[in-house]
Amino acid sequence: MTSPTRLIFPRKALASCVRAYVVRSTFETPLEERKDRYNHYPATPHCSITFYIEGEVEVVDPPEVMQDQFRAVFCGPQSRPVTTYNPGPVRMLMVIFYPQVLHALCGIDTSQWLDRWAPAGQVLGAEWEALSRDLLAPQSDEARLARLEGFLAQRWQAVRPGGAGAAAGDWVRHLAAQAADTALGRGVRNIERRIKLRAGQPMRKLLRLQRAEHSFFEARDKYLAGKAVWTDIAARGGYADQAHLCREAREITGHSPLELVRLLASSDESYWIYRVWT
After folding, report:
1. How many CB atoms within 10 Å of residue 6?
2. Most exposed: 69, 97, 128, 261, by fewest CB within 10 Å?
3. How far is CA 216 from the centre of its chain?
4. Which numeric CATH code is attached to 5-159?
């Protein structure tokens, strides 16, 4: 069966702006089982905008995040796993941004949007509201992405940072270098304040999430090859021990590393975001 989800990477000029696009449609092959219509997302340092072109979404956990229906939803960085549910078929486009990008483009204090969702136009302004209307109109996925990248390219070119890390790379450490590269307030507290303003979370949490992602990728590969030695994976990831790795995995995904890789190896459709990402 053809996967209902595609992970698409941006053009080179937007590589330090957009981490990836996710296009998903279950209209062509509807998910009959209720359990398959859940969507499990991990904690993430990234911001996103999701355009619900057709269909509906409900937030299941945590229940206080967002209960109103919006078709273009801005999501700030998430410090906890999130579960949503689609009552029926859905067609959506998700744009995943590096967290400092929307501060640069729109001047928002990203720290104020930690664990929060809201209509994209309300957060980002009138130009983004108009973009949302364009992207929600009937058209092909290719036309939507072309419109979106045209909108972003001009604006990102005007504000993007320079330097060796500007093409993405290790974005967390590049963010730290940007925050320190100013003539005013080079003290540690000032740098930490600027990092939190731009990315929504302190550097130690960003590094923790980045470390976990790398370790999850390694765990998946080793498990599928039948060579997963959890103590070695924990050590290479910089964890104090295997228990430390397990605690952080549960905080970020809601599962132990072993449970997570087993889910990735299964056909459980509700974990599609993990599967397409890895």
Report:
1. 13
2. 69
3. 15
4. 2.60.120.10
